[in-house]
Amino acid sequence: MYIMMSWLATDIKSELADHYFWAAFRGGNIDTSRKDLGIEVPLAVPRLAIDRLATLRLKFQGASRKGNALHQARISFNGLQLGRVAEWKRQGSQVATRSIPWARVHNNQVNFMRIEALDTNKTPAGSYDFYLDWYEFDYWRSFRAEANRLEFNTNTEPRNRGKVHYSVRNIFHDAIDVYQIDENGITSRLTGGKVSRIGASHQILFEDTVNQYTRYFVISRSAYRSINALVPTPPTPLRNPSNQADYVAITHPDFAENIQPLVEFRRSQGLTTMVVDIGDIYDEFSDGLFNPVCHPAVPPVCL
């Protein structure tokens, strides 16, 4: 079994930037002081199988401008309060890290994290004391492939170093590839693994020398994804030198309608606005491939 991260996160670069938070809290009101968030842990190790800890990290962002505003957030997981109440002041941020006994983590049903605002700042209706910016949840998962593929790492139970054998199950094809990967993609392909049949599925047993943190990707050759067709995309106006906009909103089509209030707000401030489909950026600057590196090229072109 190995450690897996489930996360819901964004990153705020500047107080001047538009930023969406996942939940808002105001103390003293049952409708705004408490939020329950479901956390699923796919293929997690059964909760009584190991004596280890899960880790929950949350980042809060203060919203109150009062000079004496004190924020207090009580964090619970499946009914268990996690540590002390988190405290910080005014518009500061706070990262809270809490450990959770693995016996409290459900592997076969949704887990619930509860956040309660205990603030007594007398914040008026329509305003909030603080926001939830992001959370991360580290949990232990079994070596069972899902959809004939599995990504995992060397942070395992039990902990191992030197020559380590890994066994990945639940693969429904006998031709299986194993790769070492990093944030940039594949670093090497591992060969010599032993494939055997277990019931209706297969497992692969392979060996590697572990001296540092390493990530692996195991995949059946039947699970590789291929492109069905290449089709031309309609032209976009992004490279048009006549484009002029003070404020550019880049969004996915699913959020185009929801972002309109923000665009209208900027327009009411006297700014000329432009809404850009994120797919058009990939088509125009990255040949249709998902590549965040192409984003910095957009503002100079649009503006």
From TrEMBL:
It holds the Pfam family Peptidase_C25. It comes from the Eukaryota. Gene3D superfamilies: Gingipain r, domain 1 (3.40.50.10390). Residues 247-289 form the Gingipain domain. Keywords: Signal. One of its GO terms (biological process) is proteolysis. GO terms for molecular function: cysteine-type peptidase activity. This is Gingipain domain-containing protein.
